Amino acid sequence: MDKRFKTSAIIENDSYSLRFLYKNPLGRFLLKIMIQPPLTKVAGAYLNSFFSKGMINTFIKKNELQMADYLPTKYTSFNHFFMREIKPEKRPVPQEETDLAAPCDGKVTVYSIDKQSTFKVKHSEYNLIELLDSTDLTNEWQGGCAVIFRLTPDDYHHYYFIDEGNITGHQKIAGIFHTVQPIATHTEPVFSRNSREVTVIETKHFGKIAQIEVGALMVGKIKNVKNSGSCQRFEKKGWFEFGGSTVILLFQKNQVKIDPEIWANTENNFETIVKFGQVVGQKRGGTL
Q1: CA–CA separation, 286 vs 288, rounded Å?
Q2: Which pLDDT score is estimated for 132?
Q3: Average pLDDT, rounded, for the chain
Q4: Quick one: pLDDT at residue 275?
Q5: Is 105 an annotated catalytic residue?
Q6: What is the band of 262 on the pLDDT scale with cuts at 50, 70, 90?
Q7: Residues 45/39, Cβ–Cβ less than 8 Å
Q8: Cα separation of 270 and 9, whole Å?
Q9: How far apart are CA 231 and CA 222, in angstroms?
Q10: Whole-prediction pTM
Q11: Which of the following is catalytic: 52, 117, 195, 245?
């Protein structure tokens, strides 16, 4: 097997605080308060303020960030730092247009979309109708696949369009912010309750796709810069503010061929570690 990718096991590696919030009765009571909109707005205001700058150095050390990879910037808040821009040469992109490149950094899994419109994320099964908030859209992806990019704090938190095309639909779906860490997916239908945005795109090489951004606990804000019109390959689509984040790509039947190593890793309970621009598949009929 081609060993171009690094992997990480899909395991429980949750902090004491998360176990308390999701497993302890008092913790669950506090969580209900924490995820209410007024409190998330307060948290967001703090993270956007000058006072949050003190969090930056601790975050860099804890997550072992290579700050030399990012454009030098004088950060005005923690969120400003979290949305840091990477140097273009640190994320090279493929020139072959039929190559499917990752839209963002992340830990990747891939699943077939069956007749019941469900697939598994972090040991839990999710219904596409809940995810997309649309029965009509759900029917269009039967026989296709879902490619899931789970971003962690050490990742670059901007995401991009994977191909040139036309945006034919965009929907914001309000939800309750929950962490995307594994412990939460055992107790809450995380991806069907989190705030998310669904963009439907008619692409040049990969057919009709849906790109979904998912917010997470506390702030988890999604910042899309383009919701209509045409898009270009590797044009910036948006970014996440602080909070665990996920990007999901849905492909229709017989449109793409995802790298066999990613399929094998998922089947063996591993996530595949990729960076924005790294080739993860090809247009169906390619040579991967």
Answers
A1: 6
A2: 84
A3: 82
A4: 96
A5: yes
A6: very high
A7: no
A8: 4
A9: 18
A10: 0.83
A11: 245
For residue 246, the Cα-to-chain-centroid distance in whole angstroms is 2
Mean pLDDT of 201-206: 97
User: Which is the catalytic residue, given 99, 105, 155, 163?
Assistant: 105
Amino acid identity for residue 218 in this structure? M
Residue 169 one-letter amino acid: G
Token pair in block for residue 223: 């910042």
Report the C-alpha gap between 222 and 238 in whole angstroms: 8
> Are 272 and 261 within 8 A, CB to CB?
yes
Predicted pLDDT at 34: 54
Q: Tens digit of pLDDT for each residue in 99-152?
A: 999 999 999 999 888 767 566 544 445 678 878 888 778 888 889 999 999 998
